[in-house]
Design goal:
- By secondary structure, the protein is α/β, with parallel strands linked by helices.
- It has a single domain, classed as TIM Barrel (Alpha-Beta Barrel).
- The protein is built from ten helices and 15 strands.
- The strands form two sheets. Strands 1-15-14-13-2-3-6-7-8-9-12-11-10 form a 13-stranded mixed sheet. Strands 4-5 form a two-stranded antiparallel ribbon.
- A hairpin with a 4-residue loop joins strand 13 (286-289) and strand 14 (294-296).
- It is globular and about 55 Å long.
- It starts with 5 loop residues before the first strand and ends with a helix.
- Bound molecules: S-adenosylmethionine and iron/sulfur cluster (SF4).
Length: 361
C-alpha cells in the first residue's frame, strides 16, 4: 500500500522567523541553506518505464485537470526568481512529452531575478530530443542532462521496457553537436544490470564531449521495489572506474549533488551522485514543483505544499489575477519546513507515495 503525501497549506512565519524568511529576502531555511534551484516537473507521463522509476503497468497518473498550465508555471517561476531562484530545471516524467515544451522554455528563459537572467536546464530521456533541439536552443535553453543507463540494446529493453535505444543515442548525438554546454549524461548504476558497463559509459560520454554522472539508486520507484542490496554504491563505482583511470577529486562542489573526479588528470571528468551512502543534504539548495502544483522541499519528503488553491481560487484558473504574495507565502512555508536531511538510512524511513516520475528528478 502506498503512503499518502500530506498536503498542507500556508503557515505564516512566526515573529522570530520573520527576519530570515520574509517577502523579498532570499529563500533561507531554518538550517541556513539558501535555495537557488527549482526543479519543475512538467508531466508525470513518460515514453519509457525504467524499472527503478515506474512500474510496467498500473501506474496511477495525475489527473489531467490538475496539471499546471504554462501560465501557472510561469507565475510560480516569476515569484521564485524574485526570491532568488536562479536555475530552473525542467523534468518529469519526460518533459519532451509536453506539447508546449518549447514555449515553456521560451517563457521561463525571459525571467530575470535579482542576479540577472535565470538559467534553464532540462533532464530528459533524449527520445524526442533531435526533433526539439533546434527550437529549444532558439528558445534559450541553457543546459541538458540526458539519461542513459546502458549502451546495449537488450539491456536497454529490459531496463526501460521499451526498444528505444536508437532514439536516445540519436538525441545524445544531436545534443553533442549542439551549442549546449556543459552536456551531462545520467546513469543509475545497478548490480547485475549495468555494473559491468560503467567504464564503457564514461568512454561513451567522453566521446560525446559530455560528463557521465552515476546516480546511486534511490528508494523512489513508483512500484516501491527498491532494495539496498541491488544498489551499486559510490565506492563500488569509484573502484570500477579506477581500473581504467586514475581519479582526482575536483574541489569546489558547492551545492552540487555530484562529487566530481578528473580522469587521468583531466580535462575529462566523471560525477557520482551518492544520495544514499554519502548524502549531501547539508548543502542542498533545491526545491521541487510537481506537475500538479505541489511544492516539495526534498525528494524524499512525505509533506507537500499545495499551490493550487492560490493558483486557482474558486477552482478557476485565472492568469489575469496572479496572487504573487500568495504564491510567495507557500514558497516560503515550504522552505521553512525543510528538515536538515533525508532519513533513507534510518529504519523508520517511509518512501514517499509518489514515484520519481511524479516528483521530478
Ligand atoms: N525522464 C527524464 C529522464 O529520465 O532523464 C527526466 C525525469 S527522471 C525522473 C530524472 C532522473 O531521475 C533520471 O536521470 C533518472 O535516471 C533518475 N531516477 C529516476 N528514478 C531514480 C531512482 N529510483 N534512483 C535514482 N535515480 C533515479
Ligand atoms: Fe521515464 Fe525518466 Fe522515469 Fe525513465 S527515469 S521512466 S525516462 S521519467
Amino acid at each position: 500500500m502506498s503512503v499518502v503525501p500530506v498536503t498542507i497549506g500556508v503557515r505564516a512565519p512566526s515573529a522570530h522567523e520573520a527576519p530570515r524568511n520574509t517577502p523579498g529576502a532570499p529563500l533561507v531555511d531554518t538550517h541556513g541553506r539558501v535555495h537557488r534551484d527549482l526543479r519543475i516537473s512538467l508531466t508525470d507521463r513518460c515514453s519509457l518505464r525504467c524499472t527503478y522509476c515506474m512500474p510496467e503497468q498500473g501506474n496511477e497518473w495525475l489527473a489531467r485537470s490538475s496539471i499546471l498550465s504554462l501560465d501557472e508555471i510561469e507565475a510560480v517561476a516569476r515569484v521564485a526568481a524574485d526570491a532568488g531562484i536562479s536555475t530552473f530545471r525542467l523534468t518529469g516524467g519526460e518533459p519532451l512529452l509536453r506539447a508546449d515544451i518549447v514555449e515553456v522554455v521560451r517563457r521561463l528563459s525571459r525571467i530575470e531575478g535579482p542576479g540577472g537572467p535565470v538559467t534553464i536546464a532540462m533532464t530528459t530521456n533524449g527520445i524526442r530530443l533531435r526533433h526539439f533541439l533546434p527550437d529549444l536552443v532558439d528558445a534559450w535553453l541553457d543546459r541538458l542532462n540526458i539519461s542513459i543507463d546502458t549502451l546495449r540494446r537488450d539491456r536497454f529493453h529490459d531496463l526501460t521496457r521499451r526498444d528505444r535505444l536508437d532514439d536516445v543515442l540519436d538525441g545524445i548525438a544531436a545534443a553533442a553537436a549542439s551549442p549546449l554546454r556543459p552536456l551531462k549524461l545520467n546513469a543509475v548504476a545497478m548490480r547485475g544490470v549495468n555494473d559491468d558497463e560503467l567504464v564503457e559509459l564514461v568512454e561513451f560520454a567522453v566521446a560525446h564531449a559530455a560528463q557521465l554522472r552515476f546516480i546511486e539508486q534511490m528508494p523512489l520507484d513508483a512500484g516501491h521495489t527498491w532494495d539496498r542490496h541491488t544498489m551499486v554504491t559510490r565506492d563500488e563505482i569509484l573502484a570500477s572506474l579506477s581500473t581504467r583511470w586514475s581519479l582526482q577529486e575536483v574541489p569546489g562542489r558547492g551545492g552540487a549533488p555530484a562529487e566530481t573526479w578528473a580522469l587521468d588528470g583531466g580535462p575529462h571528468t566523471v560525477g557520482v551522485i551518492a544520495s544514499v551512502t554519502a548524502p549531501f543534504c547539508g548543502n542542498c539548495d533545491r526545491l521541487r514543483l510537481t506537475a500538479d502544483g505541489q511544492l516539495r522541499n526534498c525528494l524524499f519528503s512525505t509533506t507537500e505544499f499545495d499551490l493550487l488553491p492560490v493558483l486557482r481560487p474558486n477552482d478557476s484558473p485565472d492568469p489575469a489575477a496572479v496572487d504573487a504574495a500568495g504564491i510567495e507565502a507557500v514558497l516560503r512555508a515550504c522552505v521553512w519546513g525543510k528538515l536538515p536531511g533525508h532519513a533513507i538510512n534510518d529504519p523508520s524511513f517511509l518512501q514517499p507515495a509518489r514515484g520519481m516520475n511524479a516528483i521530478g528528478g
